[in-house]
Design goal:
It contains 20 helices and 14 strands. The chain has about 625 residues and is an alpha/beta fold. The strands form 4 sheets. The chain has a 6-stranded mixed β-sheet with strand order 6-9-10-3-11-12.
């Protein structure tokens, strides 16, 4: 899904929100610059002492002065090294701590998002923000603590010392600084534009990788490796070209810096030599110290240019991170929220719903539906008829655009969100299992469930029969995404997980599509017998999955097109509405399948095959064995 910018007024990025995440590492963030200042002061004093050794020691043959000042310089160098090491340790701790806090805060905020919030960010975009963007912030913060402290302090102290040696000759530094300042001011805006675009290209690369790895079996099954290579190469090349554009601009900073350094050295050497020869107030030692200060001053400017590159790059990352942190969840619990769901009754009172609340086209229009507690409702309809959208409103995964949805007689917007979702258990269309044992996955439904309760839920979901065949049974480890179990096994585990919540409302969103009709019938029978008071809403493509429902709802283009009467057969409900033109019912007295009605050739072949099947004695034997009188 393409990433869209979060809605609402865009805030100016100041970094204040990110600075709040330093938290327990504030002490390290404050101590590191102090150590750096001490280190810089000691380093800047060394050239001054060098001038003293040359002018007052070597020039006059005073070796005692040389030894005394030399020993002092050695002590100062050792202290400078100590302060530098301590500054590095504290800055590293502060920057890595900031990165850790940022990731925790971002991940926690994402967990608070509603589906509509998540829809505004792409999955690849969120992954990039949690990884690449945070790493850029971490590196930039470490450079700010060390180099952004060292460079200005070095610049100020070295300028002070240079002017104290010879103010007239030190004017060269001011000219060089003015030139560099102008060049950096010109380069920053140009580079910033490309860095912002570069992060979007990172999102695209991550998106291609995630899609490919997640669907690698499909890629190999259809022999699409070459196509996927081309797609990845396209995304990678787009990132490469944008990065080159950004780095091309940044690359000007180093030659400009080197030109300025060499120009300063030449100027000071030329004018300094003339002053020494003309004996106009400059000694050899002082010229030596000034040349050292040239390197100190201009190296500090060079370090600032490096920081400029990093900060320019991280400013775009900071903006993307703050978008995640400042995005407010659309769905929250109200004050004095209702925490108890009385029963499983569900009422849709003239509900209209659009995914984009203000400007989107409604996917559900004027839904008026009333479901009694304990009732079983089948929901059918063609592809894109908004069946999943309908049930997502019950557990308040989205809020309605107009009208209201009530559960237990109370508007879902008045409930505590956690309490409502504990009472409404949903088995989604895309079944997801997590890495861990089968017990671990089942206890997502109820973390305090006993082993016996887990086994009972699996028995009701007909999952026990394959679990018992595993060597480690319920302690069998499930790989991430459930890749080591089949689609039908995954669906049954997800149903068992939902049953462990002991919900007031159970929603099965096409959740038995990967199991055979016999197992499907056993699951439906178990739910009728063991959880009769739970309201069950079953979305299905097979009529056999809903043929025992109290009522069957048929959706067409986001509207209720037909509702079967209590205990009415599935065929009657289907044939009352327009969807019968799209979905045909075949053999619903024994089993049901949904096929396209307008596919005349397929319908003809299916009907002929069905007639032959009904006449087969072996089929009648299987029918009597597994389906009885149904």
């Amino acid at each position: 899904m393409a990433e869209t910018k979060p809605t609402g007024e865009k805030k100016h990025i100041t970094g204040a929100r990110i600075a709040q995440e330093i938290k327990q590492y504030k002490k390290d963030a404050l101590i590191s610059p102090l150590y750096t200042v001490c280190c810089v002061i000691l380093e800047i004093l060394i050239p001054y002492l060098t001038a003293s050794i040359i002018d007052k020691g070597i020039a006059v043959g005073n070796m005692a002065h040389v030894a005394k000042i030399g020993a002092l310089m050695a002590v100062m160098a050792i202290l400078a090294m100590f302060f530098g090491v301590r500054a590095g340790v504290h800055s590293a701790r502060a920057s890595t701590g900031l990165a850790s806090n940022l990731r925790e805060s971002m991940f926690g905020r994402i967990q608070e998002y509603s589906f509509s919030n998540i829809d505004r960010f792409s999955t690849a975009g969120l992954v990039t923000r949690l990884t690449t963007d945070v790493t850029n912030i971490q590196n930039a913060f470490q450079m700010i603590l060390q180099i952004c402290t060292r460079a200005p302090v070095t610049l100020i102290v070295a300028l002070f010392m240079a002017f104290s040696v010879n103010a007239k000759l030190s004017l060269v530094f001011l000219v060089a600084m003015a030139f560099l300042g102008v060049m950096i001011f010109v380069l920053i805006p140009k580079a910033m534009k490309y860095f912002k675009l570069m992060f979007r290209k990172y999102d695209a690369v991550n998106g291609v990788v995630q899609e490919n790895v997640g669907a690698i079996r499909v890629v190999k099954a259809f022999v699409r490796e070459d196509y996927e290579d081309e797609k990845f190469s396209g995304a990678a090349n787009a990132l490469f070209k944008n990065s080159i554009s950004a780095e091309r601009i940044i690359s000007f900073s180093m030659p400009i810096m080197q030109l300025t350094v060499y120009a300063c050295i030449l100027s000071i050497s030329w004018f300094g030599a003339k002053m020494i020869v003309g004996q106009t107030g400059l000694t050899t030692g002082e010229l030596t110290s000034l040349l050292s200060y040239v390197m100190n001053i201009l190296m500090s400017l060079m370090m600032l240019s490096m920081v400029f590159v990093m900060v320019t790059q991280s400013a775009a990352a900071a903006q993307r991170i703050e978008e995640v942190l400042e995005e407010q969840p659309d769905i929250t619990s109200p004050e004095n929220a209702v925490k108890t769901v009385k029963d499983g009754s569900v009422d849709f009172n003239h509900v209209t719903f659009a995914y984009q609340q203000r400007s989107g086209k409604p996917v559900l229009s004027d839904i008026d539906l009333h479901i009694r507690s304990g009732e079983t409702i089948g929901v059918m309809g063609g592809t894109g008829s908004s069946k999943s959208s309908l049930v997502s409103l019950i557990s308040r995964l989205y809020d309605v655009t107009a009208g209201e949805v009530r559960v237990g007689g109370v508007d879902v917007r008045k409930y505590d969100v956690e309490s409502l979702r504990d009472a409404v258990s949903v088995v989604l269309q895309n079944n997801v299992l997590f890495s861990g044992t089968i017990y671990d996955n089942l206890r997502w439904g109820n973390e305090n469930a006993t082993d016996e309760q887990c086994r009972e839920a699996c028995r009701l979901a007909c999952a026990d029969e394959f679990i018992e065949r595993f060597p480690e049974k319920y302690n069998t480890r499930i790989e991430r995404g459930g890749t080591n179990v089949s689609g039908g096994q995954k669906q049954r585990l997800c149903i068992a997980r939902a049953l462990l919540k002991n919900p007031k409302v159970l929603i099965l969103d096409d959740s038995t599509s990967a199991v055979d009709t016999h197992t499907d019938a056993m699951i439906q029978k178990a739910m009728r017998e063991y959880i009769p008071k739970t309201t069950k809403i079953i979305i299905a493509q097979r009529i056999s999955s809903v043929q025992n429902a109290d009522r069957i709802l048929v959706l067409d283009d986001g509207r209720i097109d037909a509702i079967g009467l209590d205990a009415a057969p599935a065929e009657d409900a289907m044939r009352k509405g327009k969807p019968v033109q799209e979905v045909g019912v075949f053999g619903s007295d024994e089993f049901g399948v949904a096929i396209r009605k307008d596919d005349a050739e397929t319908m003809k072949l299916v009907n002929e095959g069905y007639k032959l099947l009904k006449a087969d004695p072996y089929w009648k034997e299987l029918q009597a064995k597994y389906l009885g009188n149904k």
